UniProtKB/TrEMBL annotation:
Pfam family, one: Epimerase
Organism for this UniProt entry: Glaciihabitans tibetensis
Start and end residues of each NAD-dependent epimerase/dehydratase domain: 3-218
Gene3D superfamilies listed in its UniProt record: NAD(P)-binding Rossmann-like Domain (3.40.50.720)
InterPro entries hit by this protein: Epimerase_deHydtase (IPR001509), Lipid_A_modif_metabolic_enz (IPR050177), NAD(P)-bd_dom_sf (IPR036291)
Signal peptide, first to last residue: none
UniProt name for this protein: Nucleoside-diphosphate-sugar epimerase
Listed SUPFAM superfamilies: NAD(P)-binding Rossmann-fold domains (SSF51735)
Length: 296
C-alpha cells in the first residue's frame, strides 16, 4: 500500500516508518524537519516536509494514499502554551482525516494516548477505577494534550459514520527505546515506590511499530480502539502486591494474566489485531535499573 506516516522523524515515527517499509509498503514520511538531500544519508521511505495544521498541506500529502498513519503531535501539555498544544494536535488531525475522507483513503491509523483515561498531568488528583485498565474504562482527561487526543478519537468516529473509511485508534503506553529506557524506567525497575500515573506500564517503540503495521494492514470495519502496552510491568514486580501496597483498596484489582502484569490490558489488541509484543525492559536494563552492557 501507499502509506503516509506523519511525525516520521520522531521516536515512534522513525520506528513505524522502518517497520512499514520492511513490510513492503510504499511509505511517504511527513514531518516538520527539513528534508535531507545529501547522498549517502539513508532515510527509509520517501519524505516531504509539511505543516499539517495547514489544510492545503494535509491534502497535498494525503492525495493518492491508501492508508494514513497519524503520529505527529505535540506529545505532552508541558513545554508549549495550552492553546498551542490543543490547536496543533486537533487541527492537524482534523485536516488529515478530512483529506482522507475526501480522497477515499481506505485505512486511517490514529495514534492517541493512554492519557485519555486521565492518568497524566491532572490538575486534580486522579486514580483509575480498576486495573488493569482496558478499553471499557471511562475516559476523563483534564489536560489539553489528553483532551486533544480524545477529540481526535471522536473525529475518527465521525469519519466512519460519514464515509467508508476504516479507522483504528492506538493508545500507546509510555514509549521507550534503547536510548531512554534507563532514564525513564530505571527508577521504577529498582523500586516500584517510584510511582507513575499508568501503574508501571510501558511499551517498547519497536513493539508499538509492529502494532502500527498490524493496524495499517487490518481489515477491521468501523472504528476500533486499542491500548498498546507491554504485557509486563517495569521491573517485573508482583502487580497485585504493589498495587495493594501503594494504593490500598482505592483501585479495584481485576483478573491478571500473569503475576508481573502491566497496569494496562492488551487483551483486545491480542484478540482483534493479533498483537504479540516480544520486547521487554529486561532486554535493556538489569534489575538495578542500569543499562545492560553488550557483554551482558
Amino acid at each position: 500500500m501507499k502509506v503516509v506516516v506523519t511525525g516520521s522523524r520522531g521516536k515512534v515515527g522513525r520506528a513505524a516508518t522502518q517497520a512499514l517499509v520492511d513490510a513492503g509498503h510504499d511509505v511517504l514520511g511527513v514531518d516538520l524537519v527539513r528534508p535531507v538531500f545529501d547522498a549517502g544519508v539513508v532515510v527509509p521511505g520517501r519524505y516531504q516536509m509539511a505543516d499539517l495544521t495547514d489544510a492545503g498541506s494535509a491534502y497535498a500529502v494525503v492525495a493518492g494514499a491508501d492508508a494514513v498513519v497519524h503520529i505527529a503531535a505535540i506529545p505532552q501539555p508541558t513545554g508549549n502554551p495550552p492553546h498551542v498544544v490543543f490547536q496543533t494536535n486537533l487541527m492537524s488531525t482534523f485536516n488529515l482525516i478530512e483529506a482522507a475522507v475526501r480522497f477515499g483513503v481506505k485505512r486511517f491509523v490514529y495514534i492517541s494516548s493512554e492519557s485519555v483515561v486521565g492518568n497524566f498531568f491532572p490538575e486534580r488528583p486522579f486514580l483509575p477505577d480498576y486495573a488493569p485498565v482496558d478499553e471499557q474504562h471511562p475516559v476523563l482527561p483534564q489536560d489539553p494534550y489528553a483532551l486533544s487526543k480524545l477529540f481526535g478519537e471522536q473525529l475518527m468516529d465521525a469519519a466512519v459514520r460519514r464515509s467508508d473509511i476504516r479507522a483504528i485508534t492506538l493508545r500507546p503506553s509510555n514509549v521507550h527505546n534503547e536510548d531512554n529506557y534507563e532514564e525513564n524506567l530505571g527508577k521504577q525497575v529498582r523500586d516500584p515506590a517510584n510511582l507513575s500515573g499508568n501503574l508501571w506500564s510501558y511499551i517498547d517503540v519497536y513493539d508499538l511499530a509492529d502494532a502500527i503495521v498490524l493496524a495499517t494492514e487490518s481489515d477491521l470495519p468501523g472504528h476500533e480502539m486499542f491500548y498498546i502496552a507491554s504485557p509486563d510491568n517495569a521491573g517485573g514486580h508482583d502487580f497485585a502486591e504493589i498495587l495493594h501496597r501503594f494504593y490500598g483498596e482505592q483501585i479495584e484489582l481485576r483478573d491478571l494474566d500473569r503475576v508481573d502484569a502491566s497496569g494496562i490490558s492488551i487483551a483486545k489488541a491480542r484478540r482483534l489485531l493479533g498483537f504479540n509484543p516480544t520486547r521487554s525492559w529486561s532486554d535493556y536494563l538489569g534489575t538495578d535499573g542500569r543499562r545492560l552492557t553488550t557483554a551482558e
